[in-house]
User: Which sequence fits this backbone?
């Protein structure tokens, strides 16, 4: 017998209603349907290019990976499955699809009801309902862990159990110009919570520009060190297609997006060297700049990495 939905979608498609695991005892070893551990949840669209860098360190860092593909046309899910198999992590990988057009961040999101399959809010809640561990982590398909990042997450995974804490992780955008050349942004503090306990107090709700994961004010907030994550931004790709309009960046609530637009514009206009906090990186011959930054450049860069700190 199929139990009722915790969050029915207004379109009436039961396959995309949200059913939380803690309301379905028996799925795991505990009464709440969850097992101790950390699951990373990706919500992705057309990330096949990035996943060979993104997934292997994540499989080394967490207990399980859930990847939800939203209408990709570049073989994203197939690439993810192959990377999982190559990493001998097939048993720790869940790949699925979400075949609905999701409203873009900004004005389009604001106009979409939160219980619609087209809402970012419902999309995220449906995705995280696939988690079967006590902790979950939101992650993007263009974010690469450094070796230090893998170690930190592996340590956190067992220390967090039962704590109720949330974890914020700084990330450093890496704008890739060519196989050997990139610009890394260390002039803005890109910091937000990524890791949360699973439970009814930690679900997604609708905000003005995007979805927001709630958590109790009593939750301890842990801030991870800098230098653990880079966010890949290929300069020839449209990094802002998931926004209704770049005019939304004028809003005081989205300084992070304004900074990203400033950096992108400067690189395209050839004035990146004039932007405070942007660093030009050239990899050695025969080494891809992503590998160079992740494995060498960040590890040896002077601390603190971010000098001109502003809150995101």
Assistant:
């Amino acid at each position: 017998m199929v139990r009722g939905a915790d969050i029915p979608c207004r379109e009436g498609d039961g396959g995309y209603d949200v059913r939380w695991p803690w309301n379905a005892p028996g799925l795991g070893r505990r009464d709440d349907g969850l097992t101790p551990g950390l699951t990373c949840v990706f919500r992705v669209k057309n990330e096949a290019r990035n996943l060979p860098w993104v997934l292997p360190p994540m499989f080394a860092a967490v207990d399980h990976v859930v990847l939800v593909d939203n209408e990709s046309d570049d073989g994203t899910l197939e690439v993810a499955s192959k990377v999982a198999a190559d990493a001998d992590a097939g048993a720790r990988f869940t790949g699925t699809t979400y075949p609905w057009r999701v409203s873009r961040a900004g004005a389009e999101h604001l106009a979409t009801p939160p219980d619609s399959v087209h809402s970012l809010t419902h999309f995220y809640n449906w995705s995280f309902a696939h988690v079967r561990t006590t902790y979950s982590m939101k992650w993007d398909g263009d974010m690469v862990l450094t070796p230090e990042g893998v170690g930190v997450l592996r340590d956190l995974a067992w220390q967090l159990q039962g704590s109720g804490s949330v974890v914020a992780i700084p990330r450093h955008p890496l704008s890739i110009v060519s196989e050997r050349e990139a610009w890394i942004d260390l002039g803005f503090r890109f910091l937000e919570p990524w890791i949360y306990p699973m439970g009814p107090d930690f679900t997604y709700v609708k905000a003005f520009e995007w979805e927001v994961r709630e958590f109790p004010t009593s939750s301890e907030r842990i801030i991870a060190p800098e230098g653990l994550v880079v966010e890949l931004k290929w300069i020839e790709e449209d990094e802002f297609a998931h926004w209704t309009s770049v005019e939304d960046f004028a809003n005081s609530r989205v300084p992070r997006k304004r900074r990203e637009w400033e950096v992108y514009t400067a690189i395209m206009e050839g004035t990146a060297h004039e932007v405070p906090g942007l660093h030009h990186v050239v990899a050695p011959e025969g080494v891809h700049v992503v590998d160079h930054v992740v494995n060498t450049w960040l590890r040896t860069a002077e601390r603190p990495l971010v000098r001109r700190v502003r809150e995101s």
